[in-house]
UniProtKB/TrEMBL annotation:
The keyword Protein biosynthesis belongs to this UniProt entry's keyword annotation: no
Protein name per the record: Uncharacterized protein
Phylogenetic placement of the source organism: Bacteria, Pseudomonadati, Bacteroidota, Cytophagia, Cytophagales
Keywords from the named record: Membrane, Transmembrane, Transmembrane helix
Transmembrane segments: 7-29, 53-71, 78-99, 111-134, 141-158, 178-202, 214-233, 267-285, 292-311, 323-342, 362-379
Protein origin, superkingdom: Bacteria
Organism: Algoriphagus confluentis
Amino acid sequence: MIQVPKTLIFWIAVLLMAIGYSWITYAMLAGKVFSDFPAHLDIWNFYQERGKIPFPPLYYLSFFGISTLIPSPQSLKIGLLILVSLSWLGKFLLTYRYLSPVFGARSWTPWIPLGLILFFPISAWMGEGAYWFLGKMTPNLWHNGSTIFVFPFCMLLFGEVQKWFSGEKPNFFRIGLWTLLILGIKPNFLFGLIPALISLIFLSEVGQKSILPIIIYSGTVLLFLLGSKWMIFSNSSEQSLFFNFNARGDVILDPFGVWLQLSENPFWDLFGSFPFLMGSLACFGRTLGNDSVFRLAFSTFCFAMLVFFLFAESGPGYLDGNFYWQIPISLFILYLVIAKILWSTFSQNPDKKPSDRLKMQLLSFLFALHVFSGLAYLWRITETGQYF
């Protein structure tokens, strides 16, 4: 049997991902599938007509900047399509780069990041209600452009801050750059990362030399987050470039309020979201728990969930779920870390126990179920025209 070169499979995977997600984004921009994209275009046009810029600004400025290079009446839509497509490509390439050192030169290696990008909560098919997305915790989403755009920068930031916990020296310029970009696009990922960094200090997870840099970094980011909160909810100066025409409401404590409004079956929505995560913890919990990078990723995800469950935005944006967006990013990164640790441990162990082989087979089955559910979800949204 002829072995297909890895490079060919890699580019086939890239092509499938690029074509598939560009087509889905196009369908959303064209109004064939309901999404946030048309609303974002309307927001930009509304603010631009009044000489203002929405805050945070970088998402809007990026697709507008691309649109200025396109001589077409639909340049704004095309600019957003290009931005989102490049973001998906960046997410795929970063996933491949993170995993390829442990998966090696195997011909099927490129399919693992493609599978992770298709990951979705396991759906009950006929047992599901009207919602397949709302109420569930997914590592991927397709309808929100700002979250898609910020995804690669969150992955890059995690790749640097994890060095505080793995004994490496982080690049502070990169940490600052990725953080500023995230703050300027969509800061949600920091809602989980910063509490995780602070809590792990108290649990003595880092060396003495890393404590002060983490404290300075976390404190600085918290100040920026407070400033962003003021800009979004309280900026009432009409002279401000970032004057918020929709500055109504505030951040409120509302335990489980938004989630219970959106979830049709809370038990199933939680259970169906995490079979692979629960299986990984049940089968290899000790192996994962001994890894400092996993503890950082898991803590970030737990705090991301906690923020969503505890806080909400009062006013007309209540059901927008604006404290949800950190969950897909932190959960995707957690799955990346799990995949890397488990495959590295399993492949490097020459004396594999039959029980370990069985556990890996079980996790492979759960992985495939999540990917299959992702494909089913994409088919469903193209058929129904609704992402939820």
